[in-house]
């Protein structure tokens, strides 16, 4: 990568690279990682903003949808321990407790004592939680397709392969 954009539209990363090239010409040849990683970082922020707004339109917080979808895809009986959520979401037990409290008040999840270990509490998807998740997921996938509309399916699959390679090289190999 030589830092040029071959006539394509410019973005904020192009501006950042240009500024650094002017400020530190000695680093111009070393700025190539910013072409990808700067864009990935900015893309993460932009996607988070899109996803939060999408969830808010459906009276959910993004973290709540994360809990709902995690429970739904876990399969029957659609329940996990709070500890399993903490591990998956990398948030504090207080944050998970507050999130589950809000979701329980909305009727999306319920807490149930583990029949084998009464000290353990599991979070279970309610029927309302199933309904919300099913409706949300269909809309969510359509929204994601909308966000990727500037690419065709083959380009998306190629990008997905490349991003997978990068994630694996950085150790992100499992959700469990």
What this model shows, in words?
The protein is mainly α. It has two domains: 12-57; 60-150, Arc Repressor Mutant, subunit A, CATH 1.10.10. Helices cover 61% and strands 7% of the residues. It has helices at residues 12-23, 32-56, 62-73, 82-89, 93-105, 127-147, 153-169, and strands spanning 79-81, 109-113, 121-125. A three-stranded antiparallel beta sheet has the order 1-3-2. Strand 2 (109-113) and strand 3 form a beta hairpin. The longest helix has 25 residues, at 32-56. It starts with 11 loop residues before the first helix and ends in a 7-residue tail after the last helix. The model has no long low-confidence stretch (mean pLDDT 90).
Average pLDDT score? 90
User: CA-to-CA gap between the ends?
Assistant: 36 Å
Gyration radius, in Å: 21 Å
Helix/strand structural class: mainly alpha
Contiguous low-pLDDT stretches (5 residues minimum) are none
Tally of extended strands? 3
Helix fraction bin:
55-70%
Q: How many distinct domains?
A: 2
- Work out the helix count: 7
């Amino acid at each position: 990568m030589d830092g040029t954009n071959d006539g394509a539209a410019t973005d904020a990363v192009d501006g950042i690279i240009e500024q650094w090239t002017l400020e530190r010409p000695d680093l111009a040849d070393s700025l190539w990682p910013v072409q990808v990683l700067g864009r990935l970082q900015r893309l993460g922020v932009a996607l988070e903003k899109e996803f939060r707004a999408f969830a808010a339109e459906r009276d959910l917080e993004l973290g709540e949808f994360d809990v709902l979808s995690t429970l739904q895809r876990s399969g029957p009986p659609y329940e996990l321990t709070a500890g399993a959520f903490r591990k998956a979401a990398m948030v504090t037990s207080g944050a998970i407790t507050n999130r589950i409290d809000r979701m329980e008040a909305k009727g999306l999840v319920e807490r149930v004592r583990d029949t084998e270990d009464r000290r353990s509490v599991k979070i279970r998807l309610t029927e309302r939680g199933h309904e919300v998740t099913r409706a949300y997921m269909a809309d969510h996938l359509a929204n994601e397709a909308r966000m990727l509309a500037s690419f065709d399916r083959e380009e998306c699959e190629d990008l997905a392969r490349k991003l997978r390679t990068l994630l694996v090289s950085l150790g992100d190999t499992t959700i469990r």
